[in-house]
C-alpha cells in the first residue's frame, strides 16, 4: 500500500495559505507553488543513492559523496509545469519529461495526448508532479505510462490532495508513494478539491 506523507512544516503551511487565498496574484501564485515544490523535493529526495568520489580539496585528496542516481521530473500537463522550476532550482541536473492526459468525454477514460520522456527512467528517481490530486484519474494513467516506459521508482508529488484521489492511487498503484503539502476534506460535485485553491492551471498561467 502506498505511503502517504503529508508535510507538516511551518514554511509549507504558511506558503499554502498564500496560494489558497483567491486574491493572490498569478505571479505570486506561480512563485509560491515553486517554493513549496522545492521544499517538498528536499525531503522527498532524502533516499537518493550516493556514491563515493575522490576529491582533491586545496588541503588534501579525500573521499566524498556524490549523487549516484538521476532525478527525472515529470509534470502532468499543464498544471504540473508550475512545480518544475522549484525542483530544478534544487536539482539542476534533473531531466524533465512531459505527459499530457485528457478525459474522453464519452467514455470518461483518461487518454494520453502527449508523452516525451527522457531515457534512464528505469534507474532514476521519478517525481511525477501535479499540484492537485483530485479524482486521481490522470495520475493513475500517468503512472501507468511511466511504468510502461520502464520507471521503477515513482513518487507522486502534489500540493493539495483529496482523500478520494489518494484512495484511487493506492488501489491502482500501491507501490507509488504519495507526497502532499495538504490533505483536504474532499471533492465537490464539480470534482474541485474543498477547500482547495481553485483551478491550479488557471491560477498558475492567468487563464480563466
Ligand atoms: N484540478 C484543479 O486545478 N483544482 C481542483 O480543485 C481539482 C482539480
From TrEMBL:
> Which cofactor is recorded for it?
Mg(2+)
Cross-referenced Pfam families? UPRTase
What does the cofactor field's note say?
Binds 1 Mg(2+) ion per subunit. The magnesium is bound as Mg-PRPP.
Q: Which residues are noted in the entry as 5-phospho-alpha-D-ribose 1-diphosphate-binding?
A: 78, 103, 130-138, 199
- Catalyzed reaction equations: UMP + diphosphate = 5-phospho-alpha-D-ribose 1-diphosphate + uracil
Q: Which keywords belong to this entry? A: Allosteric enzyme, Glycosyltransferase, GTP-binding, Magnesium, Nucleotide-binding, Transferase
GO MF entries: GTP binding; magnesium ion binding; uracil phosphoribosyltransferase activity
> Where in this chain does the record put each Phosphoribosyltransferase domain?
6-207
Q: Which residues form a coiled coil?
A: none
Name one process (GO BP) from the record.
UMP salvage
The record's section on HAMAP family has: Upp_B
Tell me the protein's name.
Uracil phosphoribosyltransferase
Q: Coding gene?
A: upp
